[in-house]
Amino acid sequence: MSENIRENHRVSGFSKFDKQARRRWLLDHFLPGHDSGDFAFFDATNPDLQEVVDNFSENTLGNFPLPFGVAPNFLINGKVYAVPMVIEESSVVAAASSAAKYWLTRGGFEAEVIATEKLGQLHFRWGGHPDRRAALFPELERRLRHVTSGITARMETRGGGVRGMQWKHLPAVNEQCYQLLVRFGTGDSMGANFINTVLEAYATEIELWSSDSEQLNARERDLEVVMAILSNHTPNCTVRTWVRCPIEQMNLAGSGVDAADFVRRFCFAVDIARQDPYRAVTHNKGIMNGIDAVVLATGNDFRAVESAAHAFAAEGGTYRSLSRCRVVDGIFHFELTVPLALGTVGGLTRLHPLADIALDMLGRPSAEELMCVAAATGLAQNFAALRSLVTTGIQRGHMRMHLQNILSSLEATVTERKAATGFFDGRTVSHHGVRQYLEKLRG
Ligand SMILES: CC(C)(COP(=O)([O-])OP(=O)([O-])OC[C@H]1O[C@@H](n2cnc3c(N)ncnc32)[C@H](O)[C@@H]1OP(=O)([O-])[O-])[C@@H](O)C(=O)NCCC(=O)NCCSC(=O)C[C@@](C)(O)CC(=O)[O-]
Ligand SMILES: NC(=O)C1=CN([C@@H]2O[C@H](COP(=O)(O)OP(=O)(O)OC[C@H]3O[C@@H](n4cnc5c(N)ncnc54)[C@H](O)[C@@H]3O)[C@@H](O)[C@H]2O)C=CC1
């Protein structure tokens, strides 16, 4: 590509273009051979709804659909749920459904929210001596709470608000680095915007305090706010979920695998993931298959959930599996503890029409109830994946589902699809094998 052409690929003011102009510019500069119908393929027929979707993010060109599915038969804390799941990967919904069905007749999933505290951080540079903090903090805290009382009042009526704060010294960054660590309750919201609003009001007030407090000497007036933002590390916003049943009931119908042998191999696999980070990352990916699908379906922030989960898995310095397994007195226990900062109000939860339906499907849960459902789906997913891994291997079930994608990529007709599905039932599926089969079929 010549310099000239590259120059033409740059653009100024793109964010001001309307959607048609954005599409046109992309077609002219980056997508020869396409037309604007390619972007419009999944546009909503209702223009008002399309506008809502366009406003979810920026520079939008079209909609990018993902399948919206459901895993029925989830018995969680004595209530049966049909769990909404949005995911692009084959066999995840099938695996969650299969594990839900398995546990439906074995007591189901139990789940309890351990804590729901979120954190926010205000970082600042301060010229005072660290030992002066104890004397200065009461006045500062009183002023910070006072200045945000209008913002926090309604959240307090929901049992949330500012739960406490600490003034920390971070000499590892540099001698003048300080952090205000604030603990929040955010009710049924994930709370990012609430927390950030409070913290930014604190940022203004702390600078004001440094300039007008009579308690401060000249050095102590040297204060500069660096940034104010929530922390996505939420080790005190966690949920625990578990399944348990006598080993003799852990039969796998039609597999020929003995229940005790299955449990022994299953626990062995979990123990490996407790110790070996390479295995733990894959193991936890399986858990997140389930959790992310529920998080996406309900319009929650999956990046926040992902980063918090992996930080939690690495607490203590070694990355470990989030789930653990044990057998006590002939009873199989399998459990998962995971941080989940979820909301059932705010963000996209009610704005996205399918997230709204997903929450209806769950019976308009509180944030705590949604934490229980998402965690149980993660544990179910983990159970199904491990059950396959230690018995048939993952490819049998996974590739059976993925077969449909391979057939789509090879543009199989309905008749070819039907024939191939029958042919590969019980046979090993591979892209090459399916291609060969279709070539033979097509003569
Ligand atoms: C795939 C299954 C469930 C098949 O398992 P199966 O026993 O052959 O299924 P089945 O045909 O006997 O059906 C039993 C039930 O499974 C569900 N089920 C079965 N098929 C479907 C389907 N088409 N659509 C929806 N649900 C399905 C459904 O609940 C069904 O009950 P029914 O509805 O008939 O009353 C099993 O092999 C399995 O659980 N495999 C694990 C798959 C998995 O974990 N996939 C994730 C991708 S791999 C990965 O990303 C993570 C991993 C594995 O690396 C993590 C790790 O290493 O730990
Ligand atoms: N680092 C991060 O994770 C960041 C995430 N975000 C985004 O912020 C959004 C989530 O922020 P939120 O503050 O949760 O959403 P939001 O800004 O839509 O606010 C939720 C609001 O709903 C109101 N509300 C009504 N009923 C409530 C109830 N029962 N409980 C609690 N609040 C109730 C409250 O005023 C609350 O502040 C997500 O879209 C996320 O992606 C934004 C900035 C940073």
From TrEMBL:
GO terms for biological process: coenzyme A metabolic process. The keyword Electron transport does not apply. Its EC number is 1.1.1.88. Belongs to the HMG-CoA reductase family. The keyword Cytoplasm does not apply. This is 3-hydroxy-3-methylglutaryl coenzyme A reductase. Pfam families: HMG-CoA_red (PF00368). It is an enzyme of class 1 (oxidoreductase). It comes from Neolewinella xylanilytica. PANTHER family: 3-HYDROXY-3-METHYLGLUTARYL-COENZYME A REDUCTASE (PTHR10572:SF24).
